[in-house]
# Entry
Amino acid sequence: MRTLRGWLKRLTGFFRKDHRDRDLSAEMETHLAMHVEDNLRAGMTQQSAKREALMKLGGVEQTKELYRERQSARS
# Structure
């Protein structure tokens, strides 16, 4: 019974991981867009606004990877 439960947990975890990754990507894009908007309102050009927003977030992919590592440590 424990073996079956373990397999089911792994299987559902696999599908949840895809869902979590999509949610995380969407959330990061939202934060990036908000920072870009703030920078544009402050008078920056589109290119400068995006560059500053990316620097402020500390790298979108790095942040995602950090989040994934923390989530896997919890499991």
Notes: The chain has three helices and no strands.
